[in-house]
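Action item from last week, closing it out:
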Amino acid sequence: MALMGQMMSAPLLISSIIKHAARYYGSTEIVSRRTEGDLHRYTYRDCELRARKVAQALGALGVQQGERVGTLAWNGYRHLEVYYGVSGMGAVCHTINPRLFPEQIAYIVNHAEDGYVFFDLTFLPLVEGVAPHCPNVKGWVAMTDRAHMPAESKVPLLCYEELVDAQDGNYEWPLFDENLASSLCYTSGTTGNPKGALYSHRSTVLHSYASALPDALGCSAHDVILPVVPMFHVNAWGLPYSVPLVGAKLVFPGAKLDGASLYELFEQEKVTFSAGVPTVWLGLLQYVQSNNLEFSTFRRTVIGGSAAPPAMIRALEALDVEVIHAWGMTEMSPLGTSCKLLAKHDALSDADRHKIQEKQGRVIYGVDMKIVDGEGKELPWDGKAFGDLMVRGPWIIDRYYRNDSNPLVDGWFPTGDVATIDEDGFMQITDRSKDVIKSGGEWISSIDIENVAAAHPAVHMAACISAYHPKWDERPLLVVVKKPGAEVTREELLQFFEGKVAKWWIPDDVAFVTEIPLTATGKMQKLKLREQFKDYKLPAA
């Protein structure tokens, strides 16, 4: 006969995180750069009270458990209150990426069936354009006070601060099944319509626990953490949950993500740790280097979304900032791996250590992964064999929201990434399966080509795509944006590859452009580049 444990049973609910922060880190600050232009300060204790008022206000508006509530907002204290108020009362917090096309936003709002949408004033023109196409939204809430409400609007608006001030905060967070839906994020939808990942309270709390671990993101109450990654991009990689969980000071940059604005906030608030995609660090690095500045407290950053070029990792290291590569997906809540070194790596040379740091890292507890060939056969972990990356775990989706088709293969989620895994479990993305270049039947990693190009002092950004070749089928074409005022020729760039990659990997040509299109989440949009260069004639072709 089975013997059951005799422990208390308490549901893992998102409200417990902010309740814990208010009780045990009540005086710790949350600092926000507001869309109104000023800097706002308050504490976790203040935040939890106002989140309870948000929950009360939603109840007064008739919002029911399970109903979706949308947000179109930057990283800020009001957005954080909505995160906890919506999920805490049992509704679903649906963060919407405002960088998507208006048609995609309307599709997402309608597909999610959002009852209300909360938005920052920055996005009023977007709301006015989208609202007529979203007939089921019962109210649009401007996240500001009465003094800053728009004098005119094409859409009837509710005032956030009036909704909050009308409540007394005398509200107990309800208890319910931890498997209830808590939040909803849609993929960026580079092909076809965006798809929704519907997270549960249980999956979110487990993800928060795991991501805060020392060998994951390593969050601590000693930290001052500034998430540059937006709260509309996979819940800012879970930081709005994991940071209050450990009681760290939280700093929100609002809409100002340029190098000068970020640097000012980093120094003023003594930020120790941050997280964002490579394109953000490009801007910050350029500002710091061109002005001969240093960071006084900033010591760690997590870079994800796409691979950080080795040159960027070295540049941040030179400023005494440790770079932690991480990898994940919207479908994974999002964190899957983190590249923290093992004890045995302490004795390595800088060059050997750098090779490991350029990988996406090892899984954090809760995630399992493998690589398979085209027939689904598992490949060895030798750091050489590369195949399709598959994952599974308690914060990874098993189906998309309102989509009956099953994306899993024998219980594993196919990520669409091609990767290697070494004998220590360090995984390295070699390409997206749709971006890999197949030259004469052999694979060339576009990421490796881009990393070499990015190290050239004249290169601001580089993308490698395939171009048609009559003999080899596909050959690499390098698309480059030069740094302001810098000059480099095609021949100089191609020569730069000598000795850094296999000779047959060297691109056949270089195309110079003024900009490379980015997705709504800051990744290079290679689909558009391939369309732009679909008729490109290589010199050798």
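Closing note: Residues 15-27+39-203 form a domain with the Rossmann fold fold (CATH 3.40.50.12780).
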